[in-house]
Specification:
The structure is a homodimer of 331-residue chains. Chain A has 331 residues and is an alpha/beta fold. In chain A, 45% of the residues lie in helices and 17% in strands. An eleven-stranded mixed β-sheet of chain A has the order 3-2-1-4-11-10-5-6-9-7-8, sandwiched between helices.
Amino acid sequence: MVTLAVDAMGGDHGPRITVPAVLLALSARQDLRVLLFGRQQDLAAAFDPSAHPQSDRLLLVHADEVVGMAESPSVALRSKKQSSMRLMLDALDAGQVDGCVSAGNTGALMAISRHVLKMSDGIERPAIVSALPRPDGRHTFVLDLGANVGCDSEQLHQFARMGRAVARVLDGLPDPRIALLNIGSEDSKGNDQVKLAQELIRADDQLNYVGFVEGTDLFGDRADVVVCDGFVGNVALKTVEGLARFILAEIRATFASDWRGRLLAWLIRPYWRRIEARINPGHYNGAALIGLRGVVVKSHGNAGEAEFLQALLLAARYAEKKLPEQIEQEL
Amino acid sequence: MVTLAVDAMGGDHGPRITVPAVLLALSARQDLRVLLFGRQQDLAAAFDPSAHPQSDRLLLVHADEVVGMAESPSVALRSKKQSSMRLMLDALDAGQVDGCVSAGNTGALMAISRHVLKMSDGIERPAIVSALPRPDGRHTFVLDLGANVGCDSEQLHQFARMGRAVARVLDGLPDPRIALLNIGSEDSKGNDQVKLAQELIRADDQLNYVGFVEGTDLFGDRADVVVCDGFVGNVALKTVEGLARFILAEIRATFASDWRGRLLAWLIRPYWRRIEARINPGHYNGAALIGLRGVVVKSHGNAGEAEFLQALLLAARYAEKKLPEQIEQEL
């Protein structure tokens, strides 16, 4: 069995999305249990236990408070000790669950996670990591995707070491290729931060460093792990989401423009489904906060049911793999 | 007539790509003239004048030297005074041509442009600007895309003012909406650089500032001009290119996987061509270096013929619009 704690109140839509997604996850995985944290009245409104046979693996836990999406992380940390987010992390810290999922305020999730779970030895700051698809069917792990608005070179070095561990644990790569994201691949390119980080990473014998890569290389096969600061990584990730949705919408609109197109769109449905499964950002929802002593997965704030489900399944896999312990061992 | 100076030696492929692209441009626009700068022997090898009736509008100009793609900008500026890039810019400065195009070393192009052409009054640093497509058929102008590895808040403010001018001149928008690229839309988000830039831009009555936007909004319609520092912008732009090519390749591979798919791919060709025209990054090749006293367009270094052609046509349009003079007037 895998047990997850879930913040039902997080995200732009709250229980309206998180509750149905949790029920889908319980149907999809018979070995999954969920502790769902939220305001009782909101949970009750979104959930009818009689209609859901799998609800014996679901426990609703009342939480008086909610961390707002725009709330300051430090205020949330100090004053929201009965929030769904805080109680979820307390349950993980107490060993009652194997991992956590929230679509809530990223800054608050990070601050409270650091406070409750603590950092792994030798890691100063958590990073958010996610896997981007590649033409060869494998992944490129990218970090940091927004846990930190600014990182010094030493932190980028730590991210490289954590990224190596993640690629080894999750994709079974014996010696993942590590790269730094820059605006050119030549050594002369970039700012002082990436140049200094390159020196530190190059000097680290444990890391198979392959040099600077550019944004285009995120979808190539030059590297298995791409390291960047959280500002750059967040912009890149959200640009990916925006462009992928734009392209899918453009394709749909082009076929919908006349009856012949609509007929062809119907004929190509099986192919289109396979294409969407590869490129729809919703299928990649869920990013891990790593460097912490516990599995914490952040879902996109505006995730729908199917997307929040992906984040739940991701957290279950990371919990099974005991990702934080494995990262600590690797480091 | 519009006359362009073209650096035949720039880019990953040099005259093998630039010469055929120039011939295509001369066919496409009967009112275009080109001065093509490069090493005589390389130009001669790529060009057979007898086969090209439009060659009466093409003048080959010998340039002894070439600026290397990885060469230091300061070295290129000091020691390559007979390079194709330098002579091209000298011709623009002397008023012999209306605009310039190079696929060469971006840093060198910027350094030599600044030295030869000088900056417009009140602008400290050039910026690279390009237009991204939007669902509503209009564009979002994004700058800086890599002219500067780091920018202070005052420079971001200048970019906002230049971006407003570009959107007014090129898209005829009376009062373009200006935004700053950040990792969240709330005022509390981001680093000191963007927060301070927001104060400066908000305080500027001439600018219709709409707040922070995220990477997803580059393809939405929240803003007409998105301002960011060159490191972030370059990563975002190259991520866009990489993802767009990845998606196009995934779609082609999915349809090519069996005979039924190949048949369907043949049937949907007219729709596919329209889709590709919208989303293939090659159709958007060419970005203007603005803030300079002259039209300078940078092509992607690895552009093919059709892509370099786009950069040439873009430069011709910007030269006709007298973009630098118009930006100066706007400022």
